[in-house]
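Researcher: Structure for this, please.
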Amino acid sequence: MMRTILMTLMMLATVSTQAGNGIYKQKVKDDSGKTVKLKQYKGKVLLIVNTATKCGFTPQYKELQALYTRYAAEGLEILDFPCNQFGQQAPGTIAEIHQFCTANFAITFPQFDKVDVNGPEASPLFTLLKSATPFRGFDKNDQRGLMMHKMMQKRDPNYEQSTDIKWNFTKFLVNRKGRVIRRFEPTESIGEVEAVIKQLLR
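Model: Predicted structure, token format:
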């Protein structure tokens, strides 16, 4: 039993190390279509988020901006990737999405081109993030977590077994060395996210 646990921990450490090496090899498109190499963010703490403008969680943009305002000077970067895969809640062009976000939430953190996060056309960045930090489940003691669990279970009784991103505003936290540290589901509070960010910024 102990040997099995140790082997599992070693495997997870290997995946995390590989993810750390891989983050800075990723290339993405910004909101103007320009290629951006993530190696430009070396040494930063990254919060990578798939977002939507017509979602019940869309007000989290305000909370994300508040985090960015508080911690950007200490080394936090928030990387925003709109995604239309969940209820088609990120309609429109990236220019329209950016205009909405600046007008309604005054965001100043980097916003990138729309991506798929699941399926055959998934962004390689999000494929890497999912492999490094599998889905850990929704908190069923939380009202929103239980709601999401029931909704997902109706669609797929085995949804918990997949590493796929479940909904908008799933967040991945990456430390200064490029290692994926934590995955936060959209129902988890920004306070929980902030607590871990503060530790990584020390």
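Researcher: Any notable elements?
Model: Strands lie at 27-29, 35-37, 45-51, 76-82, 171-174, 180-184. Residues 1-20 have pLDDT under 50 and may be disordered.
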